[in-house]
Amino acid sequence: MRAAEQVVFDREPDVDLMGRAAAEVARVAAAVAPEGAVLVVVGPGNNGGDGLFAAALLAEHRPVFVWLTGGSGHAAGREAARRAGATEVDAVGALQSLADSALVIDAVLGLGSRGGLPLAVATFAEACAAAAVPVLSVDLPSGLVADQGLLPGASFSAAHTVTFAALKACHVQEPAASRCGRLHVADIGVDVPAATLRQAEESDIARWWPTPGATSDKYARGVVMLDTGSEHYPGAALLTVAGALNSGAGMARYTGRVASGLILTRFPSTVIGEGRAQALVLGSGWGETDGAEGRVANARLHALPTVVDADALYSLPEERLDGWLLTPHAGELARLLGCTRSHVEAHPLSCVRELARHSGAAVLLKGATQFVAEPSGRVTLAVAGPAWTAQAGSGDVLAGICGTLLAAGLPAWQAGVVGASVQAIAAARNPGPYPPDQLAARLPETIAALTAGAGG
Ligand SMILES: NC(=O)C1=CN([C@@H]2O[C@H](COP(=O)(O)OP(=O)(O)OC[C@H]3O[C@@H](n4cnc5c(N)ncnc54)[C@H](O)[C@@H]3O)[C@@H](O)[C@H]2O)[C@@H](O)CC1
Ligand SMILES: [K+]
C-alpha cells in the first residue's frame, strides 16, 4: 500500500488522499448510522488524520465527539474538526458519551500499527463491545496488524471496516478477519499491483459457474477421470466421484484401485477405465501407496488439466505444471515447502504464493480461510462457509468438484475458487453436521439456486 500510494504522490504531489479516505469513511458512517452522535477515537498518525477529517465532515450535520487518545493528533485534521464544531473529550468523557453514541469511529491505528492497544484504548474497546455500540474502523480494527491474521493483543471488534484500494491480510485471515465486520473497499485513486488479494463473492460464483448451454453434450460438459482411493481408503474414491457427479460432470471415469463394483453400486453412471477425458483428479485417499510417482507421471502423459490432492502432492513432476490445480491443506503445504505447519498458519498468503510461483500450478490452500494463488502471485479467497465442513472427507469431495470444473474448461485458479466456494455455500445453506457425502448430495440444489438468477 505504501509503495502504491507513493506512485500517486510522485505523479501528483498535491493529491489529497487523506481527504478522499475521510470522505469515504464519512459516507459509510452516514449510511450505517444515519442519525445520532458520533464518537471518533483518534490515534497519533495518519489513521487518526482520516478520522479527524471524517469527524469534520460529519460535524456539519450531527453531534460529533473526538477523543485524542494520545493527547494530540494530525494537526490539520484536528483544526478542521474543531472548526466544524466537533467537541474534544478525554478518556473519561469518551466513556461517558459512549452510551449516547450511535456510532464509534475507530481511527486509532492503521497501517502503522505494531499490534495491540494502549491500556486506556483497550478498556474503551471493551466498553464499546459491552455497550453494543457499533464500531466503524478506519482501514483496520485498531490493534490488528495489517499483514497478519493473528491477534497480537487487544483490538476493536468492528461492525464495519472501511479500507482503501485493496483488502489486506488482516481483513481475510482468521482469527483477525472476524474482528473486521462488514468490509468496504473504498477507491481513493490508488492503483494496487496485479499481484493482489481479492475476495470472491456468491455473485462471482454464480457468474463463473459453467452452466451447460442448449447444445452441450457430455463431452462439452466435461469428462473427469479420477485415480483416487486405495484399499485402505476406498471411501475417498466414492467421495471424489460424489463431488464430480453432484457438481455436474458430463461423465466421471474411474481409473483407481478401488473395486469397480463398489463404485458402480453407489454411482451407476460412472464409467470404469481410461478413455477420452478433459481433466484428471489424482491422489485423494491414496495413502502412502507405492507407485505414486509412476501414477502422477502417467497422468502427465495425458497432458490434461489435473487436480493433485493429498499424497499425490509429494510426487509432483519437476517441470512447470501450467493449468494444474494443487489442493493441499496447511500440513501438506508445510511438508511441500519444508517448513512447519504453524509457519503456514501464520503466513498462509506468502506460503501459498510461494508454491504457486515455484510450481507453475494454481494452489488452493484448504482450511477455515481458503486461498487460491496463481503463479503470478494473485490470490483469490473463496467464499467463506461454516466450520461444519472441517471434517474428514470434505477435501475428497472438493477434489472431485474441482475436477468437474477443470473438465468444463475453467482455468485452474477459477476451478479452485469456485469449487471451494460452492462447497462452503452448500454448507451455509444446509447448516449442521452433514457428513461430506450427504453435503455432496446437496450440491445440485445449491448450484441450481445459485445459478437460477445468473442468466445461465
Ligand atoms: N499514506 C497515505 O497517503 C494514506 C494513509 N492513509 C491512512 O494512514 C494510515 C497509516 O498512517 P501512519 O503510517 O501514520 O500509521 P498509523 O496511523 O497506523 O499509526 C502510526 C503511529 O502509531 C504508533 N503505534 C503503532 N503501533 C502502536 C501501538 N500498538 N500502540 C501505540 N502506538 C502505536 C506509531 O508509533 C506511529 O506513531 C492508514 O492506515 C490510513 O488510515 C489514508 O489517509 C490514505 C492515504
Ligand atoms: K483503525
Explain this structure to me?
Its cofactor is Mg(2+); K(+). With about 450 residues, the chain is α/β, with parallel strands linked by helices. It has two domains: about 190 residues, Rossmann fold (3-Layer(aba) Sandwich); about 250 residues, UDP-N-acetylmuramoyl-L-alanine:D-glutamate ligase, CATH 3.40.1190.20. About 40% of the residues lie in helices and about 15% in strands. It has 19 helices and 17 strands. A ten-stranded mixed β-sheet has the order 8-17-16-15-14-13-12-9-10-11, with helices on both faces. It has a seven-stranded parallel β-sheet with strand order 3-2-1-4-5-6-7. The chain is elongated, with a radius of gyration of 25 Å. The two termini are about 40 Å apart. The model has no long low-confidence stretch (mean pLDDT about 95). Potassium ion binds next to strand 4 and strand 5.
